[in-house]
């Protein structure tokens, strides 16, 4: 996925870290190929989110931070995308946020509706963690909930009109976010980068 965020920095969401962490040498190579203001958003390994489901993952989380530390200030937020059958577990989320302790900006994509309530939003706000909003085909557009001073949007529909994009820009700017990471769906036709450029142009 390719995107831009409000401060006009460019960014990409790294998906292969979900399956396997790259070697530090690979990350160093990436860093050498992008400008200083570029940011890499990291999708957390499935061991943390799907296999262990946020429990007893201190070692895995430390390894994630240690490996991606070579990115330096080019490292953006870490996205924790939970599985669709993972229902709300408030104590588990609180314990996991204690493990993170603000060491890196984080966003959570909850794919079971039970997580989406005021108790969870308050917990995220306390930790300055962003609620990732995913806009997908065959589902209503999600409500934009502000839980941090920045946002994380995954606009994953196949098509967006200029009106659609302008609507998302208006919703994002109404929050007072300092910046927002906005990602479009990656596919073989190359539509994602084109949508990202249109989105950036519409931001003025």
Summarize the structure.
This protein has 204 residues and is of the alpha/beta class. Helix content is 34%, strand content 20%. The relative contact order is 0.16.
Which features does this protein show?
204 residues, alpha/beta, three-stranded parallel sheet
% residues in beta strands: 15-25%
Tell how many strands the DSSP assignment holds: 9
Give the termini distance in whole angstroms: 22 Å
Basic shape: globular
* Alpha-beta content class: alpha/beta
Largest β sheet strand count, sense and barrel closure: 6 strands, mixed
The CATH superfamily bears the name: Protein of unknown function UPF0759
Which assembly state applies to the chains in this document?
single chain
Gyration radius, in Å: 16 Å
**Total helix count?**
7
Count of domains: 1
The stretches of 5 or more residues where confidence is low (pLDDT under 50) are 1-6
What does this structure look like?
- α4 packs parallel to α5.
- This protein has a single domain (2-202), classed as Protein of unknown function UPF0759 (TIM Barrel, Alpha-Beta Barrel).
- The strands form 2 sheets. A 6-stranded mixed beta sheet has the order 1-2-3-4-5-6.
- It has 7 helices and 9 strands, in the order ββαβααβαβαβββαβα.
- It is globular.
- α4 (90-100) links the parallel β4 and β5 (106-109).
- It is an alpha/beta fold and 204 residues long.
Describe the secondary-structure layout.
Blueprint (H helix, E strand, L loop, with lengths): L1 E3 L5 E5 L9 H9 L6 E5 L2 H6 L6 H11 L6 E7 L8 H11 L5 E4 L8 H9 L3 E2 L1 E3 L14 E6 L6 H12 L5 E6 L6 H12 L2
Parallel strand pairs: 2-3, 3-4, 4-5, 5-6, 7-8, 8-9
Antiparallel strand pairs: 1-2
Helix pairs in contact: 4-5
